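If you are new to this repository, start here. Below is one unmodified record pulled from the training split, so you can see the exact layout before writing a loader.
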Amino acid sequence: MLRPFPILLAALLVVGQAPVAQANSFDQDANSCDLNDKTTLRSLCKNGAGLPSYPSTQEMMERSPNIANMIVDAANKYGVDPKLALAVSAHEGAMSACAGSFSGVLGPMQLTGATGRAYGMDRGILSENIEGGVMTLRDAVKSCGGTSSIRCLADRYNGSTESQRRNWTHDVNRRYAGLNSAGQSIRQGCGAQPVCQMGPGDFQTPNGGETKLASSAPGPARSDINVASGQV
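And here is the target side for that same chain:
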């Protein structure tokens, strides 16, 4: 969400997304997984705010599991598709508490102070940064009549230059589609374990279990080593 708002960022801030996936000092998860936790961004970000690394959405969820699960909890709380909320945070702030921009937005949802206050949230508190961003996304979805037009969501959530909105549309759409693909692991919120989405040929386990089983075992790959009986 790129709208001007004054903020003291780290001394060196490169504009745009990092081309490499290696971790840097601005890749920061929450200390706990709790939307009621009032930990501030300042306390988490000893080096200030700056540009985190932007790997795949799955890698972001792995390095910031608490933030990813808090985003899912906030999405469920406000009636937003969790996969969309994760895709938006992945593009906006790389699911990092210490994400910052030249325009002054902060946190995993890249929230402005004014937008946060409009929803009764303090964007400087991690959990409220997440909730404020998800509430903004909720209203964008309502205004756009659903999630079918990612470009419409870009216009309402990002609200910056035309080129940045085109980039937002492309990247969020790509990440959202990836999270919706068969077999993709998704976060289930604080206190829950990730499960796999159902794919073609999969079936539910008996007694309503959460574990998904394939309908048949995969055949051996050429790289597999066959071991005779009794040699294991």
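Two things worth knowing about this chain: DSSP finds eight helices and four strands in the chain. The helical segments are 41-44, 57-63, 65-78, 82-93, 113-118, 126-144, 150-157, 162-180.
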